[in-house]
Amino acid sequence: MDTPENGHPRRIAMPSPEAQSLIDLFRNELKHSDVFTGELAHARKVWDGYAETTPAYSPDVKIEVVEDSGVLGEWVTHPASAQGQVVLHFHGGGYVIGHPGTYRNFNGRIAEGAQARVFSVDYRLAPEHPFPAARDDCLGAYEWIFGQGIPASDVAFIGESAGGGLVLATLLAARDKGLPLPSCAVAMSPWVDLTNSGESQKYNREPDAMIPPGLLETWGELYLAGADPADPGASPLFGDVAGLPPMFLLVGSTEVLLDDARRLFMELSSAGVATSIDVAPEMPHNWPLFAYAIPEGEASVERIGAFLRHHLAG
Predict the structure, then answer these.
(1) What are φ and ψ of residue 50, in 5° steps?
(2) For 30-40, how does the pLDDT look when each residue is reduced to its tens digit (9 = 90+)?
(3) Which of 210, 191, 214, 208 is nearest to 260 (CA)?
(4) What one-character DSSP code corresponds to residue 238?
(5) What is the side-by-side strand order in the sheet with 184-188?
(6) Percent of the chain surpassing pLDDT 90
(7) Is-catalytic flag, 276?
(8) Whole-model pTM?
(9) Which residues contact 221 (CB under 8 A, 6 or more apart)?
(10) Contact indicator for 70, 140 with CB cutoff of 8 Å
(11) How many domains does the chain have?
């Protein structure tokens, strides 16, 4: 398995029939419904319900829920997981929905592919806990990992959507606090600009299969609660990214967040950060999460695993 180390965008084949079915499902049941645009409680209930319908990856995957020293989350381990290496996962959900349990299939695959334990952070959600609560919880979890006797060189970050933004925001916060940085990081469909100024938010408004118009603005306002949307703690695209560890970005070509990922790729590359990006034609938001249903997701998870394995090996 090759690793994305050449610093150049890589394009993947056109959607499979399975992926097209998933795209159609998202368009009909999420984008063109009131799941995301109605009451937040309803969105949370629907999204959390996916934890019950998503198949388990393997009976060999073990889950351990953690509540320790103010850190909430869960360990996801596979027999292939090395005890001393950790992938810290920050889930998506626009900062307002989601919890680690929904991502167990994906995290089980990452634990196997990266040959590491995964710790998925159950960070506080807005609007009950606005910015910078989520970022602070993720940073706290990273510091907690150190308390387990695990050095930064044996840690990697991964996150999707808002979780991708948290990957970058937590890296910036850790660096600014003088903490050693992890070995590498992965951001899938990252939301790194809460000013929502990317041009793809206009030209991909219709092609995007999942995110309805206005959703990012609404959920962003709930998270920010009056804070400056250009604050690098919330919008790490506008931060100083020099000195960050190697990064692997993934985004679908028809996503409204396409330009978030592409602009981040350019910023990282210009700052001398070893960065690669996979732009997947017509893939829906966060498609690697659906590796259990589509071959493109499985292929992307394999590449993510290879990237993490390569850097965690030193």
Answers:
(1) -65, -25
(2) 898 888 988 99
(3) 191
(4) G
(5) 10-11, 275-280, 247-252, 184-188, 155-160, 82-90, 116-121, 71-77, 62-68
(6) 89
(7) no
(8) 0.95
(9) none
(10) yes
(11) 1
* Token pair listed for 272: 């001398």
Q: Tell me if residue 255 is catalytic.
A: yes
pLDDT tens for residues 279-298?
999 999 999 999 999 999 99
Decide if 2 is inside a domain.
Answer: no
50-67: buried (b, 16+ CB within 10 Å) or exposed (e) per residue? eeeebeebeeebeeeebe
Q: Which of 285, 296, 300, 310 is catalytic?
A: 285
- pLDDT confidence of residue 87: 99
DSSP assignment letter at 28: I
Pair 126, 133: CB distance under 8 Å = yes
CATH number at residue 278: 3.40.50.1820
Tokens 């998870």 -> residue = 301
Helix axes 104-114, 295-312, angle to 10 degrees: 50
Is 124 part of a structural domain of the chain?
A: yes
**Domain presence at residue 4:** no
CA gap 258, 34 in Å, rounded:
24
Judge whether 256 and 208 are in contact, CB under 8 Å: yes
Strand partners of residue 10 = 278
Helix (H) or strand (E) holding 41: helix 40-53
With beta carbons less than 8 A apart as the criterion, state whether 304 and 4 touch.
no
Tokens of 230: 């250009």
Residue 303 identity: R
Residue 300 lies in a domain: yes
**From CA 314, how far away is CA 309, in angstroms rounded?**
9
Question: Which positions ≥6 away from 125 have C-beta within 8 Å?
Answer: 93, 95, 96, 97, 98, 134
- Of the candidates 74, 112, 255, 267, the residue annotated as catalytic is 255
Say which of 161, 183, 189, 200 is annotated catalytic: 161
Q: Does residue 285 carry a catalytic annotation? A: yes
